[in-house]
Amino acid sequence: MEVTLTVNDEERVADVGPTTTLTELLREHLDLTGTKVGCGRGECGACTVILDGSPVNSCLVFAVQCDGRRVLTIEGLDANGEHDRIQSAFIESGAVQCGFCTPGMIMSAYALLSSNPRPTRREIEEAISGNLCRCTGYVKIVDAVQAASE
Length: 150
Description:
The protein is α+β, with helices and mostly antiparallel strands. Helices cover 33% and strands 15% of the residues. It has 5 helices and 5 strands, in the order ββαβββαααα.
């Protein structure tokens, strides 16, 4: 099946099977490997991307459901080789440990700050609650999102 979607502001076309997930489309067909494969069941949030303005677990979305839609991945946040403010805040706050959860966390934080530029700590915690950090670096992650909002 042919799918046409806009990924990181670029129109992309791919031939996919009916059960190909958005994660697989991004990683295997479009070579965008920043979106991580974690549990594959929507429990860890490592594969979080922004679909039409909302964060989604890309492992739970079929690629064919994305035809005609807009996807933003972690690669799309680097505009002209410069980090997004959230990426910079993660680096400056020491919120990156093993890095496996980082793309999903950043995408969830990006979605939050896009809709709520001045969230409370509680709102940040709720926004990233679907993202698991294996290193348990949640305090620094919340600090980084809060710093990016200032």
